[in-house]
C-alpha cells in the first residue's frame, strides 16, 4: 500500500487533472466523458462551497485517536465521487492525510477492492500509520446503495434517470454527512 500511496496525488492535483482532461482531452475516453467531467467538476465545486464538517463528527474523529491515512480511489467524472470525495477531503483536512489514486491510471489497486465484481468508485481505503489496510468503504453511502437496489430490482418502475436524479438530490441535501459517518464507524 505504501507504493500506491506514493503514486497517489493531492486533491488539488486531482482537480487540476480533471480540468485539464475536460479542456484538452488526451484520449477517446476523455472525449466521450466530457459531459461527465463537466458535471463532476460542478458537483465538486458545489460540495466544496456547501460542505461544513459536523461538530459531532469532528469530536468522534478526535475520540478515535486515528493516526492513519485515507487513500481514495477515484476519478473526477464519477457522480458518486464528485459528491463524496470533496466532503471527505475537507472533513479530514488538518487531521489525517488524504490522497487520491486515479483508478484508470492503474487498475491493480481497484482490483483489490472490487464491489460485487465491479471497479466502482470512489473506494476509500483506511490505512494505519504503517500503511496496512485497516478497512475500506465505498462506492456510496447506505442510502445510495438502497436507491441502486431499488433501481436494479425493477428498472421499469424505477428507471435509471429517476434513480440518478434521486441519488444526486440525496447527495446535494446530505452534503457528505452519511459518507463521513460510515467511514468514522470503520476507523
Short description:
The protein is an alpha+beta fold. The chain has ten helices and four strands, in the order H-H-H-H-H-E-H-E-H-E-E-H-H-H.
Structure characterization notes:
The chain is globular. The two termini are 17 Å apart. Helices cover 56% and strands 11% of the residues. The chain is an alpha+beta fold and 187 residues long. The protein has a 4-stranded mixed sheet. The protein has a single domain (2-139, 176-184), classed as Glutaredoxin, CATH 3.40.30. It holds the Pfam family Thioredoxin_9. InterPro entries: Thioredoxin-like_sf. It comes from Chryseobacterium geocarposphaerae.
- The total of beta strands comes to 4
The string of secondary-structure elements, in order, is HHHHHEHEHEEHHH
Question: Which CATH architecture?
Answer: 3-Layer(aba) Sandwich
Overall average pLDDT: 96
- Structural class comes to alpha+beta
Binned strand content: 5-15%
Count of structural domains? 1
Q: Please state the overall shape, judged from the principal axes of the Cα atoms.
A: globular
Main beta-sheet strand count, sense and barrel state: 4 strands, mixed
Tell me the radius of gyration. 16 Å
pLDDT under 50 segments (min length 5)? none
- The amount of helix comes to 55-70%
- Order of strands in the sheet with the most strands? 2-1-3-4
- Helical segment tally? 10
> Can you say what the CATH homologous superfamily is?
Glutaredoxin
Look up the CATH topology. Answer: Glutaredoxin
End-to-end distance, in Å? 17 Å
Secondary-structure blueprint:
Elements lengths: L1 H6 L3 H13 L4 H5 L1 H17 L4 H10 L4 E6 L4 H14 L5 E5 L4 H4 L12 E5 L5 E5 L4 H12 L6 H15 L2 H8 L3
Parallel strand pairs: 1-2
Antiparallel strand pairs: 1-3, 3-4
Helix pairs in contact: 2-4, 4-6, 8-9
Amino acid at each position: 500500500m505504501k507504493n500506491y500511496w506514493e503514486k497517489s496525488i493531492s486533491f488539488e492535483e486531482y482537480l487540476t487533472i480533471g480540468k485539464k482532461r475536460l479542456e484538452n482531452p488526451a484520449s477517446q475516453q476523455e472525449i466521450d466523458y466530457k459531459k461527465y467531467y463537466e458535471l463532476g467538476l460542478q458537483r465538486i465545486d458545489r460540495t466544496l462551497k456547501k460542505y461544513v464538517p459536523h461538530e459531532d463528527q469532528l469530536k468522534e474523529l478526535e475520540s478515535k485517536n486515528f493516526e492513519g491515512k485515507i487513500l481514495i480511489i477515484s476519478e473526477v467524472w464519477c457522480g458518486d465521487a464528485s459528491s463524496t470525495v470533496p466532503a471527505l477531503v475537507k472533513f479530514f483536512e488538518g487531521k489525517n492525510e488524504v490522497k487520491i489514486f486515479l483508478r484508470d491510471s492503474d487498475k491493480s489497486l481497484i482490483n483489490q477492492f472490487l464491489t460485487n465484481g465491479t471497479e466502482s468508485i470512489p473506494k476509500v481505503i483506511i490505512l494505519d500509520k504503517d500503511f496496512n489496510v485497516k478497512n475500506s468503504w465505498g462506492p456510496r453511502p447506505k442510502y445510495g446503495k438502497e436507491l441502486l437496489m431499488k433501481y436494479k430490482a425493477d428498472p421499469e418502475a424505477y428507471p435509471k434517470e429517476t434513480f440518478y436524479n434521486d441519488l444526486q438530490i440525496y447527495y446535494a441535501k446530505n452534503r457528505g454527512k452519511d459518507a463521513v459517518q460510515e467511514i468514522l464507524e470503520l476507523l
